[in-house]
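On clarity, I found the account of how folds are encoded harder to follow than it need be. Since the whole study asks how a given chain folds, the encoding of that fold should be made plain. The format is easy to grasp once an entry is in front of the reader. For illustration, here is how one protein appears when written out as sequence plus structure tokens.
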Amino acid sequence: MDSVCPDCGALIWYLERAEKSKGKCVLKVSICCKKGKITLPFMIEPPPLIRSLFNGAHPKSSTFLSNIRSYNNMFSFTSLGGKIDSGSGHGPPHFTISGQNYHRIGSLIPNSGQSPKFAQLYIYDTENEISNRLSHFSSLDSQNPIDSILAKEILNVMDDHNRLVQSFRMVRDYIQSEQAVPVSLRLFRNRQHDPRTYNMPQIDEVAALIVGDIGDGEDGRDIVVRERGGYLQRQNQSKIRADFLAGIEEAVSRGDIVASSIGARIVLPSSFTGGRRYMFNNCQDAMSVSKKFGYPDLFLTFTCNPKWPEIQRHMNKSRNYPIYRPDVTCRVFQIKLDQMMADFRKGHFFGRVVASMYTIEFQKRGLPHAHILLWLDSRDRLQSPESIDSVICAELPDKNLFPKLYSAAHVNIEFCNKSNCIKYLFKYINKGVDRVTATLQSRDDECIDEIQQYYDCRFLSPSESIWRIFAFKIHERHPAVIRLTFHEEGKQSIIFRDSSNLTSVLRHNKKKATMFLAWMEANKKYPQGRHLTYGQFPSLFTYDSDGHFWKPRKRGFAVGRLSYIPHSNRDLFYLRLLLNVQVGCTSYEDLKTVNGNIHDSYRDACGALKLLEDDREFIAAIVEVANLGSGVSIRKMFARLLMSNTMSDPLRVWENLFDVLVEGILYHRRRALNDPDLVISSEDLKQLCLLDIDNFLRENGKCLDDYKCMPKLLVPNNGRFNNILVENEYKYDLDEMNRLHVEHMSNLNSDQLDAYHQILQTVDNGVGSMFFVYGYGGTGKTYLWKTISYKLRSEGKIVLNVASSGIASILLPGGRTAHSQFGLPLSLSKESCCNIKLKSKKAELLSMTSLIIWDEAPMINKFAFEAFERTLRDVMGDIDKKNANLLFGGKTVVFGGDFRQILPVVPKGSRADIVNATINSSYLWRKCRVLTLSKNMRLQSSFDHIEKEKLASFAEWILGIGDGKIGTFDDGDMVVDIPLGILVSCETNPIGDIVNLIYPELLKNMFVPNFFEDRAILAPTLEIVEQINDYVLSLIPSSSKEYLSCDYVSKCDDDTLIDHRWITTEFLNEIKCSGLPNYRLVLKVGVPIMLLRNVDVSSGLCNGTRLIVTYLGSNVIGAQIVSGRNIGNVVFIPRMRLMPSDSNVSINFYRLQFPLCVCFAMSINKSQGQTLGHVGLFLPRSVFTHGQLYVAVSRVKTRSGLKILVTDDNERSKNSTVNVVYPEVFQKM
């Protein structure tokens, strides 16, 4: 310690000086005496006898000190109370006290038949007082007996000098003179000072004798000791109550003016440091910071080191140990923590820090440590393995080369990966004090003492005690989070005392503005805040809590956070949802106004904004389609809602919409039968409608029987088979299949013919085999699949065509995604199996299948193929046990793909993990026959010689990119120069430049047919894709329509890592991930969009299908398909209940939203499998995994259709970019 407090003389470190005195000559210190506000009196000089016994001057000093605990207990007024465990088990003896510890005091005189003890000894039978006191210690060791003479001398000192003893003697004298009158003793607290101050009492009288009954007239925490049968009683301070303003008005109107007759008592507040509400609110604040700045970037743990030189110097000087001086260790740790956080915010370590927070915890051994979260500026975020490695090193510094760094401090730093960390980090840094396990049971009418709960269940170490004594922060965050309160009209909470007059309370509070009401007034006064929601308001305004008004912010920034409301509190919950959306409100009516209509309730307003999940929305959607499309469209819409499992009660929707769903059926029947007077009963119309819906379901591999809640078909729609899956595979026209086969067969090249014959030979022989057809884009893999499928289907055999992606599946005849066809689990492991039960419809289909073709195999994890192989052996083994030992149960399975393309995504996986996840790393690969297609079918077209040379040159360049043979190595990266003619340079607006190239004269051409059909901009990340789409959308002058999602945590989520109350609605709204539409979807008519989920594969609506918006309704979106098999068809899409498939989002929640996104630009990964005419590749950051650059440049057929724009961090164009290729994946071929 290097400084002295000028007020109290305490030793301090200079860095502990008060904030306001920093930089000034005058030293002010707050940690010791609150800048001189607290003065401690000198210690009272002990009586001579006591002083001599302690300092060894008395002849009996050694005996006294040897029995000091016994002497102390002999004269105690109270006994110790608590939950005692004396240790009945084996092991060393121990004495454990747990729970809330307290002191107990008996009555003034003992009950009949009992001997006096503790304070009673000062009143009862004082003639034999010494013998009575000694009797309690008669069993002590005879070698150290209690000295009765010394005890008498100590008692005399107590009588002369101790005021409490004198008070109890006063009771003795009174009882001896007036035995008939009951008496009690009240021990007074100090009433002249605030009970929270540290000043010692300065009054003379500390007790009073009370004769007669004891009332409750006195306030304060006094102790009342009754004459008989009494125990220590806690006399509460003035009781505080709370009620709504409307409740007080009602009470006053009926004549109740006594405050204690209404309201509810206040429980442990959220401001109580370390309490459950305190930590819950801190976690909510953390969520608000994450909502504003995104996911945290770094998680650090900083631990106190008792060997720090500052601590060691003090210990050496005082000849002490850190374990006995938690005050020193805590103060040094606080200084270092403050300095480290200041360095972080100044950008000294990781770049610019926009937000931070930490929570202090205490180890069982006592030392404090801090858990810290940092949010970095977007310009300094760690977005590559190299940037992460630059700040995180999993090595200890060399002890000899870096001794200071080796021993300085334990600082652990970890990189945070998206929202997967939310469940752990925010719960971890806000988990509160150490607690013991407890079960609390109560009835609804029981009063819960939260303070009792808190103290009964907590563990308090010496370091934590010191930390709280010094008032150091347990939790700290930057920027500030403003907790925004709100209430229903007239239901603001009013705080008052039991003794208050309600008329005065009402008069004082009726016109007082709350924070929420002041926001409405501010919207009237300040136009610059009317575009902000209540939660956004603190970013530009500050709240004056004394004056109860908002004013424009002069400097700084704050994050607003709406108070948490449980879903059970319906009206407030709906009000909270509205406050997340509505802006510029000046009244409660404004909050309930949507599109100019004032709704009766908050719930109705939420429903109008589509913030709730309600089947009424789907009823309205089908009615909306009925006004726009045909009866077929209506029934297809209902079937799609059934398949997506979006409706809560499909039967209710069916019953409400029966007259709408049967529209057109009677008309078409009259035309088919040429009978304009045909009459069909209501029951028959119902059956025909159900039959139509069943047919739509069957086209997608489902049937009406799969939905038990729906009415049943009286005549089963079984066709020739009881299995709809098998029936669908036998619907092909054999003559048409034969014609197509002959047509395709004539165009096969030698590579394709060789593969064709080898595959069909194994099918015809029935021996079964595994093939992999390997070829780059343009070598005719899809053409080969079609030829083989037509051949086998012309013979009445079943071929199952599947692909790893939705886009690839719609290019195959009768194609499905592998996940939907085979029931692959979303989370794969080496033990996974498909969700296909023996003797099920899918099992029957597999057993009757002659050939299985699986396209785009390299992009899916090898565990999927191994799971399918195990399942197929089980299915076929159930038919014949010999099949259980055969590869794929004896079936022929053909895989296809290009290992130059993007490999399986392995969350948090390294390069080795990704390569190991590919199909050619599976144990199945050893039994696989590889068939290679090397001839580019595009060059066989009728181009002239010059055009063919251009195509060949471009194809060779693409292959060079895919094989990693083009470019030079630079610091371990393969850097590729972009050829002239493909390279694009930019001036000041790179996004605008690439948009103008790919979408020339956008406003003029956007309504030209097929303009968007074969054009797209590609980018490596979703963040860049969203920036481009937002930019292009802003260029279109037409009006937009905004659709908001309804987000909520899954009720079936049994994850116990986090309290789901911590996951607020607005936090879920901010989650963005692959495959999930955004919370806020903004669209305009004529804009290209993309489907993000499989909606209706039979109609060409699968994941990746591109469409053009034709209609923006309240409950449905109409669009025209521009890619796949059904180009030109107009479809209607409703909102659907979706769950994230991204493994990085481990919070299980639902999002009710249209499964769409704007698609002027798409990610490179999403483009895999699509063929386009004009592609703009925008690379403000380089590709980051194998095959991305290859996939991007191979989406086009010609060189003229590809444009690449590469920029650096300063948005200046470059002529080269990094290409990531893993050559080891080719070595396994």
